[in-house]
Amino acid sequence: MAAEIPRSLLVQLRTALEDTPVGSYIPESSWALVWSALAALAVWYMASREDQPIRYTIPPANFPKEENILENPSIKVSGTSAIQCYAPATGQFLGFVNPSTPEGIDRAIDQAHAAQTEWAKTTFRQRRAVLRSLLQYVLDNQEEICRVACLDSGKTMVDAQLGEILVTAEKLQWTIKHGEKALRPESRPTNLLMAYKRNTVHYEPLGVVAALVSWNYPFHNLIGPVISALFAGNGIVVKVSEQTAWSSQWFTSVIRGALVAHGHNPALVQTVVCWPQTANHITSHPKISHITFIGSQPVCKKVAESASKALIPVLAELGGKDASIILASAPKSDLPRIVNTLMRGTFQASGQNCIGIERIVVAPQHYDTLLSMLTPRVRALRLGPTADVGAMISDTAFARLEGLVADAAKQGARLLAGGKRYAHPEYPSGHYFVPTLLVDVTPDMAIAQEECFGPIMVVLRAASSSAEDILAVANAPDFGLGSSVFGSEWDSTLHEVVRGLKAGMVAVNDFGATYAVQLPFGGVAGSGYGRFAGEEGLRGLCNIKAVCEDRFGWLGVRTAIPRPMQYPVPDQERSWRFARGVVEVGYGMGLGRKVGGVVGILSNS
Q1: Residues 253 and 346 in one domain
Q2: How far apart are the C-alpha atoms of 498 and 484, rounded to whole Å?
Q3: Residues 450 and 355 in one domain
Q4: pLDDT, tens digit, for every residue of 105-143?
Q5: How far apart are CA 391 and CA 57, in angstroms?
Q6: Which pTM value belongs to this model?
Q7: Each residue of 288-333: pLDDT tens digit?
Q8: Do 300 and 328 sit in the same domain of this protein?
Q9: Looking at the domain assignment, is residue 572 inside a domain?
């Protein structure tokens, strides 16, 4: 991360010294250039030192010191309001976390507000410095972060490396490199009538924002909203899931450590965890300026209703039924790569992935070949914390998933693998579902309409290879988050499908690539509204202030109300004709109308 010496300084030194023979004194005429170059070099060095990350330390994560396997693990325990934390992959007890009360939430929001008052005054450079040190910590402590996330969510280390570390590093790097460009004031055009005006748009902090995040990626889902909020100058309160309350405590200290390292108030970032009945205290709080919600449709409706009481804007990401489409133009030689992508996109994090592949829509030409390639791969998948597919967060979805598979099979779908929960011989208290392959699914089946959010591969055959038939299947559900299309770049059908997909994101010949380059993330229809990530995500956490000011105010060129339009209006008819002349000058199409407008102004002045 070391900065390079600017080329201009090197050129300046070379210019000063190139005519000086070796062993000779520097000519007096060159000293001014030498000193100015050295002074500039010193300034650059001090500035580059400021840009270097600070390596900070925090107490290590509190991993369990002894094995304590819960027989029937659940976050709820009779006799206490505390949240019981445990490892979904094994049932290992991790500890109890006391849920936040309304009074505790008030204190957290007040502390964030007090800290944000000072943070709002920081420069982009100061904010970048914090994020740069945070990125350094993430890179230096990847294994510990992954182990904490895996223990609390059940995913494998590989899944954590991709879904917790890689995407977080990308978001941090993107914000460090491009965040200021997105948020610095920008000029906007003017018009003929207002040619003496200068127009700018400013992106200012909102205050304290909130994020209600899901459990499937406990580190990234927590830190993602924090990165954007901090760079936009806000404080933030993150309501984490009860399912991952244990890890969120340590992950919060990771973020706060970067603030402390640079002399800022760590209270700027607050995390709370509470039972659902208390959550509306956050979502209707008058001191919250914006809410990012990641979760389900039913819960989002309650969040939006609660937020409406205080008129708090809500960004909603509600999952999807993402289609991965294999067109007839996809080369046969590319099918092995496509199969690898489909496997990763479907089974990563045991299918608990917001933009995971929920449906595979295949043109008839490739259908049988693709099934012959997928079937042995899915059947070979192993379950376990160090195997191919990890655990699900809990067993509450098992009956629903088994019902969806069974109903589809009754309606004619073929079950080629899995379809039921799995009693792991080594981890009997773990939450495992057998990786499932369900084919010959039709769009009217419930499993083709509802988000599974589990390790279930659903394959549908399109009626033909036409864009119309492909889109009829792909756009059938009331979701529209992500999607992917595989085919030849020279195929007009591919471009027609990309344009026609009802989705917020499309990856061409890839899966999930849009988020890996920080394009705006979000969907349409039942997948929610608003965007996070990218420029749109940063700006969505700002007060977008329009400023219109005089270009030549110092010359006395300012807006004045013409006499015919001053109150009290002397003559309504003449005043109206004068105003019409102004409109014709400003917007009349063609020179004749503009000249007529000038005449109207002069004759009615």
Answers
A1: no
A2: 9
A3: yes
A4: 999 999 999 999 999 999 999 999 999 999 999 999 999
A5: 31
A6: 0.90
A7: 999 999 999 999 999 999 999 999 999 999 999 999 999 999 999 9
A8: no
A9: yes
- Together in a domain, 114 and 192: yes
Q: What amino acid positions are annotated as catalytic residues?
A: 317
Radius of gyration of the chain (CA): 30
> HEC profile for 507-561?
EECCCCHHHHCCCCECCCHHHEECCECHHHHHHCCEEEEEEEEECCHHHCCCCCC
- Grouping H, G, I as helix, E, B as strand and the rest as coil, residue 204 is strand
- pLDDT of 51 reads 79
Same domain assignment for residues 509 and 585: no
Residue 31 confidence (pLDDT) above 60? no
Q: How does 66-85 read in b/e, with b if 16+ C-beta sit within 10 Å?
A: eeeebeebebeeeeeeebbb
- Segment 384-408 shows an average pLDDT of 98
Could you tell me the sign of the dihedral formed by the alpha carbons of 131, 137, 143, 146, in that order?
negative
Residue 295: phi and psi, rounded to 5, are 175, -145
Among residues 499, 514, 529, the one where a domain terminates is 514
Q: Following DSSP, what letter does each residue of 396-453 receive, concatenated?
A: TTHHHHHHHHHHHHHTT-EEEE--SEE--SS-TTS-EE--EEEEEE-TTSGGGTS---
Number of domains in the chain: 3
Dist CA 456 CA 435 (whole Å): 6
Domain stop point among 266, 299, 317: 317
Q: Is the pLDDT of residue 28 over 80?
A: no
* Distance in angstroms between the alpha carbons of the first and the last residue of the chain: 66
pLDDT in tens, 237-259: 999 999 999 999 999 999 999 99
Do residues 504 and 530 make contact, with C-beta atoms less than 8 angstroms apart?
no
pLDDT (mean) for 543-563: 96
Residue 97 domain flag:
yes
Residues 224, 86 share a domain: yes
> What is the separation of C-alpha 270 from the centre of its chain, rounded to a whole number of angstroms?
19
In sequence order, which residues have a C-beta less than 8 Å from that of residue 245 and are 6 or more positions away?
Answer: 75, 83, 85, 97, 273
pLDDT band of residue 2 (cuts 50, 70, 90) is: very low
**Does the pLDDT value for residue 45 go beyond 70?**
no
Say yes or no: 387 and 451 in one domain.
yes
Check which CATH number belongs to the domain holding 275 and give it: 3.40.605.10
Contact 482, 521 (CB under 8 A): no
What is the spatial distance between Cα 473 and Cα 466, in angstroms, rounded to a whole number? 11
Partners of 198 in beta bridges: 549
Q: Are residues 355 and 308 in the same domain?
A: no
Q: Which among 327, 28, 349 has a CA at the least distance from the CA of 160?
A: 349
Range of the structural domain that residue 353 is part of: 321-514
C-alpha 95/C-alpha 84 separation (Å) is: 6
Contact 357, 345 (CB under 8 A): yes
List alpha helices for 200-294, DSSP H: 218-231, 245-261, 276-283
Quick check: is 8 in a domain? no
Please state which of the ranges 31-35, 409-413, 540-544 shows the lowest mean pLDDT.
31-35
- Residue 536 falls inside a structural domain: no
